[in-house]
Fold this protein.
Amino acid sequence: MSRILTGIQSTGTPHLGNILGAIIPAIKMANGSQNESYLFIADMHSITQIKDPKELKFNTYSTAACWLAFGLDYSKTVFYRQSDVPQVTELSWYLNCYFPYQRLTLAHSFKDKADSLEDVNAGLFTYPMLMAADILLYDADIVPVGKDQLQHIEITRNVAGRFNNLNGNTLIIPESKINESTMLINGTDGNKMSKSKNNVINIFLEETLLKKQISGIKTDSLPLEASKDWKNCNLFNMYKLLADENQIEIMKKNYEQGGYGYGHAKNDMLNLILTRYSVEREKYTYYMNNLDEIDSILKNGAELASKTANTVLNRVRLKVGFN
Ligand code: TYM
């Protein structure tokens, strides 16, 4: 029996990269009978960026609705909001005190964010310690994530190892789990899909807005009649992630034979998302219209999560000398 754990920040509605890179693989693992799972909404991490409480609350609901729309089974999974189990901040403090400052300065994600964001706060800098606490507080064995989180998992392993070396075995050292084909999904501009880069596809958008996002996918400017190179086309690569083999073959042929423009391909992409995710879109809308259901599901999850959190935290407190 392995314990799976992963989180999604509530900095916006989860995009296609979050869904393919983390949400679908995590739910698949969570539904496996051999596993136990903790899936959560990382709203405390989100306040490093989101300072408007209404926006934060909306994003938290929409992240929850996305997990539920993709089939998270809350009767089997401990599904909770990070801020409902504030014990995580206590563990995060201990971890901060066991990890060298110099090592934190090497975190890529902080460097990227410090270069692109205006609000470079101390929370952004110590972000990996809160993430390590998220994982270690629940004795997680396996953490399914996209490629951009691998360094954070390495930091988690490192700080847990340091703590254990000084205090004897206390914390479980987790493993990351990535999926080669979906660990790095590109956005509409061909760079890694990311909320902060404004290049996302949000599959839950209303049709006209979704169409607008899809029409923003960058392509070359070959005319309608020209034969096109699907191998190096960002639009085709995105389509391929969602389409079945037959649909992929048809699009390849269309590209090669010409008479098929990028406008056609974008239209096919829109229809593919609308049909492939019709059930998820409906479920998402259902939950966003029934927020009290989300509240009650998360409340129940927080109670379960707290129990595990208290057990692990007591183990750590004892080792630190606070018993
Ligand atoms: P976040 O919210 O940025 O992303 C959530 C998950 O989605 C993956 N992801 C992607 N995968 C493939 N292609 C992409 N373009 C792409 N963009 C994002 C991320 O790798 C991640 O798995 N720090 C985390 C949230 C977190 C967490 C945790 C995760 C907080 N505590 C504990 C695991 C365990 C984050 O910012 O993810």
About this structure: The chain has a mean pLDDT of 97. The chain has two domains: 3-185+291-320, 204-276. The first strand starts at residue 2 and ends at 9.
